[in-house]
Amino acid sequence: MVQQVTQGIKISVKTEFDGTFYKNRKMQYAFAYNITIENQGKDTVQLTSRFWKIKDSLNATEVVEGEGVIGQKPVLLPGEKHSYTSGCLLLSPFGAMKGHYNMINYATTRKFRVSIPLFKLSAPFSMN
């Protein structure tokens, strides 16, 4: 598990290899990641958007931006957690992801960015 705290928001990431399949005549490697966002601060916050940079071992990079996470914009009171699972496809059995969440502090109306630490994606059968 990879973890990081930014401005009182703790991000924890667990990954899992979900298998391979062919899409558009190319082998695809599917990975799932479970993220827990924990508000360790004293103010209520809301996640408004996300930014991801996904890279595989063939040096292909994909940037993903959008509102919320899996269709939600969770509001976290102090001490609360929000977990979700999502996934990505790579053209190689190794890769990595990193990014950030854009959030707003309800008490101050201040917008801030929470880092999502770099985490690795690897298919277990390709490890030596």
TrEMBL record:
Q: Which Gene3D superfamilies does this chain map to?
A: ApaG domain
In terms of Pfam families, this protein maps to: DUF525
Q: Which superkingdom, per the lineage?
A: Bacteria
Q: Which residues form the ApaG domain?
A: 3-128
PANTHER family attached to this UniProt entry: OS05G0170800 PROTEIN
Protein name from the UniProt record: Co2+/Mg2+ efflux protein ApaG
Q: Which organism is it from?
A: Aequorivita flava
